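#structure-requests
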Amino acid sequence: MSKQPHLSRRQFLGQASCAAVGSTALFSTLLNLRMASTAAAQTPLPGGTDYRAMVCLFLAGGADSFNFLAPSGTDEYNEYANVRADLALPQNELLPLNIATPIGKQLGVHPGMSELRDLFNDGNLAWVANVGTLIEPTTLSQYQNDLVNLPLGLYSHADQIKQWQTSVPQSGDAIGWGGRTADLLHSLNDNDRISMNISVAGSNVWQNGNNTFQYAIGSDGSQGLDTYDYWWGGYPARGAAVDSQMDIEYQNLFQKTFAHSTKNALEAHQEFSAATEGIELTTVFPETYLGAQLQMVARTIAAHSALGMRRQTFFVQFGGWDHHDEVLGNMADMAPVISQAVGAFYAAMEEINEQNNVTLFTASDFGRTLTSNGEGSDHAWGGNHFVCGGAVNGANIYGVYPDLYAGNPLDTGRGRLIPSTSVDEYFGELALWFGVSPSDLSTVLPNVGNFYTPGAIGPLGMMG
C-alpha cells in the first residue's frame, strides 16, 4: 500500500478553500482554528494570571485625521486654515484638549468627538501624531533624491493597509504583527480550541501569524454551521447526520483532517457561544455597526475567564473613509460614530473592571493631503491616531505634531507629510505592554531597531 503523502496544515487549509463545506461561517471558523504546532517564545513568558487585550479599530479607506486632531491656538490654527482652505473646521467648533505635557501648540478634536475629548481630558486616551509606515527614518531631502528605502506602493490602499497591519513596508508578506505576537504568547492561554485572535470584521492581515490565525465571529457572536444548531432542535436527524460524517475514520488524509477540523470548529463554536451568550452588560452601546462590533468585543472580554484566556486580540473595522469629496459633511456624520462607540466601549470596560487591562488603538490605510482637491482630500502618508485604555498615559500627545504650513520640512507635495513617528514605535509600545519581551520585539516588528533600541521604557512612553 502506498504511503499517504504528508500534508502540512497550510497545504490543507489552502486545499480546503476549494471544498464545499456547506457554510461560509463554518469555513471561516475552520480557517481560524488554532494551529496544532505553534512557535514558542524565545524568552520566558509572563507568569501569573493577569489578563490583557488589544483591540485594533481599523478605519478603512484612509481617514482625514488632521481633522480628527487639529490646531486650535491662533497662530497654528491660521497655518492649518490656510493650507486646508475649504477643508478646515471652524476654530470655534474644535473641542479643546487639556494636554498634560505642553507641546508648544494648542490642539482640539473634531466637534463630533466629545466622548474622545472627555476620555483624553480624564487621562484615559492619548493621541499619536503624524504616524505612518517607514522602513527607516526619512527626511524630505532623502525622499526627493531617492536616498532612502520607501514603503512599497506608497499612497496605495491595498499596499498601505497590508503594511499598517504587518509593519513590514518593504515586503508583500501577509503575516501580521498581531499574528506574530500571538505566535509568541498564545501558550499563556489555557484554551487550545479558540484562537487568542478574534475578528468581528472578517478576514484581516493583522491577526495572521505563522502558526496562529484569527477566529472570525459576527457582531452577534460565533456563527457556527448554517442550520446545524437550528435543525438540531427541530430535526435531530439532520444534526446526527452531520455528526456521523465527522465521526467516520477516513483513510484519505485530507478527508480525515477536514472532518477532524470541522468537529473541532463546531465544538469551539458551542463553547464560545455558551461563554458569551449569558453576558449581560448594562452599558448602552450606540445602534451602529461599529457599536455592535465593540459591544461583542466587550461581551467576549467579559467571558475571558470562562474561555481560559489571558491574552486576546480583537479586530474591528469602520470603513468608508476614502473622502475624495465632501470631507466636512462625511466626517460630520462619521466622526461621532467612532467617538460614541469608543466612549461606550470604555464605559463597558469600567463596568466589568477591565479598563486597565484592555487597550484600544486606531489604524488606517494612510493620512490624507492637507490641501484640497476642490471637493475633498487625496491619499497621503502620515496621520494621527488615538490609543484608549486605563493603562495609557493619557492626556498627552506622543510623537511630534507637525507644522502644517504648505511646503513645511515634511511636505512631499500637497501636504503629504512624511511620518515623524513610525508604526514600529507606535506598535512597539503596544506589544511591550501586551507582554512581548524586549528581546522578542524585533520578531514581532522586524524594523523596530531602525527607530528604537529596546529597553525598560517603550519607544514613545505612552503605556504605563
